[in-house]
Prior knowledge:
It is globular and about 40 Å long. The chain has 124 residues and is mostly beta strands. It has strands spanning 4-7, 10-13, 18-24, 32-39, 46-51, 58-60, 68-73, 78-83, 92-100, 113-114, 118-123.
Amino acid sequence: QVQLVESGGGLVQAGGSLKLSCAASGRTFNNYAVGWFRRTPGKAREFVGAISWSGDSIYYADSVKGRFTISRSDVANLVYLQMNSLKLEDTAVYYCAAAAYGSSWFLGYEYDYWGQGTQVIVSS
């Protein structure tokens, strides 16, 4: 029902910034909360943050709070992850995912649709 594609990843120096985009298909995009997750080899998937259906509620993991900002444009079917003050430990493949109404989206659970990910590498 929903297809997601991430973009905007790349190589950046520590302290720099990147802006990731999550493009969604369908006219029902505003019926889903959208979360951002990241994964490094050999480690569990980490919940980065999420934005509600209306965009008026946003949650961030402690590791990125104050540095990352999530926003959405339902007209454009886009959700953004603005990453500032990047650290070496932010290096990961970043995924966006969609959670239906009534889910525990704010906890990072019950996400039904996932993108393929975009690589972010932070160098010293």
